[in-house]
Design a protein that fits this description.
The chain contains 14 helices and 10 strands. It is globular and about 60 Å long. The two termini are about 35 Å apart. The strands form 2 sheets. The protein has a 5-stranded parallel beta sheet with strand order 2-1-3-4-5, with helices on both faces. Strands 7-6-8-9-10 form a 5-stranded parallel beta sheet, with helices on both faces. It is about 45% helix and about 15% strand. The chain binds fructose -6-phosphate (F6R). Keywords: Aminotransferase, Cytoplasm, Glutamine amidotransferase, Repeat, Transferase.
Length: about 375
């Protein structure tokens, strides 16, 4: 069943182009997003909402954090993202015009389900499930739904579920933007083309596996690692840190790079590798100066940049660079998470941990 792969996690990382293509097939041949993709009532509901509340745990929470940037920038809709286990126990102010989105690969996560029921109980009628398992408990609980087509995910560490969630959340963003009159037909067609090109773009990133594998050797004897990102790539840094800690047991933390000097810079020394997500976007120059701060403290830098990004330094300076084939605009996070998945996978291989079944973790967390 594993074919040429050693673990389900590796297989599932490499299935991402197909998982994305299958999920995007739901759009059909059209150059537009039909709101009906999210359910029969979606058009009426999405036109009327004034904000979005995303509830999720773990990796699914990270896809929600990324979607917040899209929903606010592209659709102009305020969005908050909450960890389900926190939301369900705090006193919050209900808003009947808000769309509540529960994101879950399994659709069975107890905290996410309870948070969703809590929101409904507070008087939030508009609910959307974004799940990989049709007919799961969370899907049954929601009026609207979008089922990703990642296929069964067996590795405990979530990979292809995450990238398909991002694709679904981008479709949601486009649908809301359109209904709010913020997306011209021309822009919409261009966005759909960009989505359709994702499987090929992810395949090109996967070809970098040998270079990433070589980096992984440097991590095996490290006890800690710091992941940095800015903007929509901060959630990607969080996801990279989560992957590394759960399967390689190396303690990893993620920070928005601008926060470095407010604390975490104190941790940086030669023993603390720093992994930076450095796409060629508006924040690149800011990020570069954050990276200089790391270098000045002797920190070893591992930078995932885009093509044409020149850091002006080299290996000899303690700066290691892998360049992704292209800059992918707003969808860049979908590409940038892939090398972080591979890095975690190969670091775990070097350490010899049980990649598909990390200690103390379960695939589906159906208890609180
Ligand atoms: C991390 C991971 C977990 C899950 C979390 C939520 O790799 O798999 O953090 O993302 O338990 O699970 P779902 O998405 O099934 O609700």
């Amino acid at each position: 069943e594993l074919g040429r792969f050693r673990h389900y996690m590796q297989k599932e990382i490499f299935e991402q182009p197909d998982a994305l293509a299958n999920t995007l097939e739901l759009v059909g041949a059209a150059k537009s997003v039909q709101p009906g993709l999210f359910g029969a009532e979606a058009e009426t509901v999405l036109r009327d909402i004034d904000s979005v509340l995303i509830l999720a745990c773990g990796t699914s929470y990270h896809s929600g954090l990324a979607a917040r940037y899209w929903l606010e920038e592209v659709a102009g809709v305020p969005c908050t993202v909450e960890i389900a286990s926190e939301y369900r126990y705090r006193t919050s102010v209900p808003n009947p015009r808000q769309l509540v989105v529960a994101i879950s690969q399994s659709g069975e996560t107890a905290d996410t389900l309870a948070a969703l029921k809590h929101a409904k109980g507070l008087g939030q009628p508009h609910t959307l499930a974004l799940c990989n398992v049709p007919e799961s408990a969370i899907v049954r609980e929601c009026a609207l739904r979008f089922i990703t087509r990642a296929g069964p995910e067996i590795g405990v560490a979530s990979t292809k579920a995450f990238t398909t969630q991002l694709a679904a959340l981008y479709l949601l963003t486009l649908a809301v933007a359109k209904l709010k009159g913020r997306l011209s037909a021309e822009d919409e067609a261009r966005e759909i083309d960009a989505l359709r090109h994702l499987p090929a773009a992810v395949s090109a990133v996967l070809e970098q596996e040998p270079a990433i594998q070589a980096w992984a050797e440097h991590f095996a004897d490290k006890r800690h690692a710091l992941f940095l990102g800015r903007g929509i790539h901060y959630p990607i840094a969080l996801e990279g840190a989560l992957k590394l800690k759960e399967i390689s047991y190396i303690h990893a933390e993620a920070y928005p790079a601008g926060e470095l000097k407010h604390g975490p810079l104190a941790l940086v020394d030669r023993e603390m590798p720093v992994i930076a997500v450095a796409p060629n976007d508006a924040l690149l120059e800011k990020l570069k100066s954050n990276l200089q701060e790391v270098r000045a403290r002797g920190g070893e830098l591992y930078v995932f940049a885009d093509a044409k990004v020149d850091l002006g330094t080299g290996d000899a300076d303690g700066v290691h660079l892998i360049q992704l084939p292209e800059h992918y605009g707003k969808l860049s996070p979908v590409l940038h998470v892939v090398p972080l998945q591979l890095l975690a996978y190969h670091a775990a291989l070097v350490k010899g941990t049980d990649v598909d079944k990390p200690r103390n973790l379960a695939k589906s967390v159906t208890v609180e």
